[in-house]
């Protein structure tokens, strides 16, 4: 793949400074995403950024690199498979960040933080023993790099960790991995459910009445994509006790509209998509590493499989 002209969507000149020596044989053009023109796209061999511009189309470049881990905003544009354009995504320490996020809320639940804070307010001394992580069963939807790191962290505490994936392939750190079609036995015995799933045609509204009715007072955490959860069915599951609490970092529409019922529920914790924020330096580093692999004609581990959507 012959890459000479690289269009960077965003005024990131200062962030690229430490990489310019590495990129000296390439021509770089920095342009605000909303200012990218047809001429910019005609000039470019590669497009790099967090989001496609209005002038972007896959057929206009040989390679596109997303600064995000998720690429649904790029895949929403038609023409990828016909263009033969390579699409890669940023692979960074998202798994570590999300594992810390999930662990923090699981421990908050097991250690009875909410109860103890209420007792402190009432000056009530009433000990309640924390529950142990080793006694919990946790099912993670998505056993890719992110899900695998979360499983590694949780299994390190002796937790029983199950996985649900499209392939059902067994992986390290999971006691068992099932395909969605055979996931019911794992879901039914889970104390915690964690979704790390990307947005694809198969995962959109995956968490609906069919899955929630299998739960029994489970704790639900979504760090994948908001569109993977049918909000109406989640609310029904909360009301019926199938889900005792939901920690939601992602939503179908972001920012979450102020009119949403979720804001007012005590059994819902809302965070503003911060479980694994993309560090720009990490994103640029991943871009440079991917460019090196392209130069060497090596396999790209972060290349998007259009049939899967990630």
TrEMBL record:
Domain of life: Bacteria
One annotated GO molecular function: oxidoreductase activity
Keywords from the UniProt entry: NAD, Oxidoreductase
Pfam families per record: 2-Hacid_dh_C
Residue ranges of domain D-isomer specific 2-hydroxyacid dehydrogenase NAD-binding in the record: 104-275
Listed SUPFAM superfamilies: NAD(P)-binding Rossmann-fold domains
PANTHER family: 2-HACID_DH_C DOMAIN-CONTAINING PROTEIN, D-ISOMER SPECIFIC 2-HYDROXYACID DEHYDROGENASE NAD-BINDING DOMAIN-CONTAINING PROTEIN
The protein's name: D-2-hydroxyacid dehydrogenase
């Amino acid at each position: 793949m012959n890459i000479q002209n690289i269009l960077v969507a965003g005024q990131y000149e200062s962030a690229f400074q430490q990489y310019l020596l590495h990129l000296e044989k390439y021509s770089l053009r920095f342009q605000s995403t909303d200012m990218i023109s047809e001429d910019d796209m005609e000039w470019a061999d590669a497009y790099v950024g967090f989001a496609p511009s209005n002038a972007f189309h896959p057929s206009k470049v040989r390679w596109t690199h997303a600064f995000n881990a998720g690429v649904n905003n790029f895949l929403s544009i038609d023409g990828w498979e016909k263009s033969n354009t390579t699409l890669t995504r940023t692979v960074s320490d998202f798994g570590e960040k999300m594992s810390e996020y999930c662990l923090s809320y699981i421990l908050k639940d097991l250690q009875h933080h909410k109860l103890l804070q209420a007792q402190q307010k009432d000056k009530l001394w009433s000990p309640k023993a924390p529950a142990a992580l080793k006694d919990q069963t946790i099912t993670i939807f998505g056993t890719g790099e992110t899900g695998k790191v979360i499983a590694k962290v949780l299994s390190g505490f002796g937790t029983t960790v199950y996985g649900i994936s499209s392939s059902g392939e067994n992986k390290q750190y999971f006691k068992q991995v099932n395909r969605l079609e055979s996931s019911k036995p794992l879901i039914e015995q889970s104390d915690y459910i964690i979704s790390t799933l990307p947005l694809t045609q198969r995962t959109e509204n995956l968490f609906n009445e069919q899955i929630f009715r299998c739960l029994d007072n489970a704790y639900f955490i979504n760090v994948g994509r908001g569109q993977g959860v049918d909000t109406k069915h989640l609310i029904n599951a909360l009301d019926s006790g199938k889900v005792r609490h939901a920690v939601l970092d992602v939503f179908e529409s972001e920012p979450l509209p102020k009119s949403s019922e979720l804001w007012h529920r005590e059994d819902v914790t809302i965070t503003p998509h911060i479980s694994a924020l993309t560090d720009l330096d990490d994103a640029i580093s991943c871009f440079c590493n991917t460019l090196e692999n392209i130069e060497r004609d090596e396999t790209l581990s972060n290349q998007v499989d259009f049939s899967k959507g990630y």
